[in-house]
Structure formats: structure tokens, C-alpha cells
Task: structure prediction
Amino acid sequence: MAYFLGRDVDVYITTENSNAVTASGVWTTTGATGSAAAVSGTGDIHFAFSRDNATYTGSAVKDVTGVDISIGAVDEDITYFGIRSVTKAEIKKETTLSLTAKKSDGSWDVIYDLA
Result:
């Protein structure tokens, strides 16, 4: 596990699509409604730029307070009839990235609702 403070890292979210992903809709103090789509034009808020513009000045995730990276594995115990030993088999490995950020608008709510 590794934890980084937001002031120590720059976070960029990109897409392999040649168009940027924007979140558009109506943001109010009570919540967000809207949609997200891959569009070539401009939208309300850009969520992910294309990989060509990955380090564009405006593409960094704003107000990040922390980044947590965890690496783990899932093991399974296997037993056989007539044998007293237990075999441990690794089923899969997983890597988890957690972003903590201040909520400045409803763009993350719109993206989360689409998933």
C-alpha cells in the first residue's frame, strides 16, 4: 500500500478514444443531473481527455487530497480426499487506485451514475 498526498502528485484521467469525455448537465447545490458522452466539441466539464492531450494544462484532476494504491492477491485453499496437506492457489491479483478529492461540482456524480 502506498499513500500520496494530493500536493505531491498530479493525477490525469485519460481515454483511448480520440475524443474527450465530457460531463454535461445541470449542477445544483442539491445534486447533479445530466449525462456523459464522448464528444469532439466542448462541454460543461471535461472528465477525461484523449491520450494525445493527456498532460494538457486543464486535464489534471482538480482538488485531489490523496491517492492510495493497494496491491493484493486472492488465494484459495484446495484440499484433496485422502491427503492431509492443503494447497494454496493464487486465483487473481488486484490493484486498487483510490482518489480522494474535494467536491467542487457534480461531474463525478454524473460519471458514477452512468457506471
Notes: The helical segments are 107-114. The radius of gyration is 20 Å. Residues 26-33, 37-43 have pLDDT under 50 and may be disordered.
